[in-house]
Amino acid sequence: MFEDAHPLEILRWAGHTYGDGLLVTASFGDAVLVHLVSRSIPDAEIVLLDTGYLFAETEWFADQLRTRYRLNLRTIHPLPSAERDQWMTDTDACCQARKVEPMQRALAGKTAWISGLRRADAPSRARTPIVHRDLLQAVTKISPLATWTDDDVTGYTAAERLPEHPLADRGYPSIGCWPCTRPVAEGADPRSGRWAGSDKTECGLHVAMPVGGS
What we know:
The chain is an alpha/beta fold. It has a single domain (about 5-195), classed as HUPs (Rossmann fold, 3-Layer(aba) Sandwich). The protein has helices at about 5-20, 30-40, 55-70, 90-105, 150-160, and strands spanning about 20-25, 45-50, 70-75, 110-115, 130-135, 140. Helix 1 crosses helix 2. It is globular and about 45 Å long. About 35% of the residues are buried. The model is unreliable at about 210-214 (pLDDT under 50).
C-alpha cells in the first residue's frame, strides 16, 4: 500500500499509528532520514548506536544535525562488559555486543522501529519491505526510504540543501565503524568498504525474514 507513497506520507502514518511506541534509528551517514523525520514527526525519538568506534566525523555530524533540526536524539552505548578490540578477532561478536544488544535495549517497550534501509543499498537489501513484522526484534519495522534510489537521495539532499557527512567526499559512501570501514573506488558497490576483505555484509540488525510486508 506504500509502494508509491512519499516517505513523508509513510512517516506521518507511522507517527499517527504508533505514537510513543515508535523509535527511529539513524547511522548519520547522511541527513536524509532525520530531516524527513523532523518534518513529519518532530517529537519522535531518534537513536544513535554509538559502538565506541564511530568516526569522530560521524559524532560531530550527528551533533550538528541534532542542533540544526532540533532532533529528539538519544545515544546508546554498549554495556561496560563489551570486550575491547573484539573487531580484530571476531567481527560478528563485536557487532552483537556493540550494535545488536544495544538495539535490543533501545527497542524495549517499543512497538515500531523506523530504519533508513533502502533497496538500492546492496543486493542483500533488494527486497526490503516498506512495512513488515520484524520477528527478531518483535516490532513492526518501517523503512520509509526503501524505494528510493541513489538519485532520489542525491536529489532530495540538493533540493533541501542538506549538509553532507564530512567523509562523503573522501570515498566513504557507506560509513560504519572506523576499524571496519574503508573508502571505495568511484563506481564501486557503496557498501564494499564495510568489513572490507571479508564476506560480511550486515551487522546483524537487519536479518529477520519479512512477513506480511507492504
